[in-house]
Specification:
Elements lengths: L9 E4 L10 E3 L5 E5 L15 E5 L2 E4 L3 H17 L9
Parallel strand pairs: 1-5
Antiparallel strand pairs: 2-3, 3-4
Amino acid sequence: MGTRKKVHAFVRVKPTDDFAHEMIKYGDDNKSIDIHLKKDIRRGVVNNQQTDWSFKLDGVLHNASQDLVYETVAKDVVAQALDGYNGNLVN
């Protein structure tokens, strides 16, 4: 990530045996994620419920180990913090 002055956004999808394959799709570039929910039919005929979201990111870490997450996301921020720069990681 270097010392660029912009916000970086990553998504980590933790490993699970019960992954929602029908709801979450990853872009081929490994930098986008699409979420799709089925319409709630209990809301009736007129249903303006949003069912699709698409996010562009700096990276998608699917089934990534904690070590890979640290190397990709936190290593530079931690090193810069030790040099006196401000940094923020949100979990």
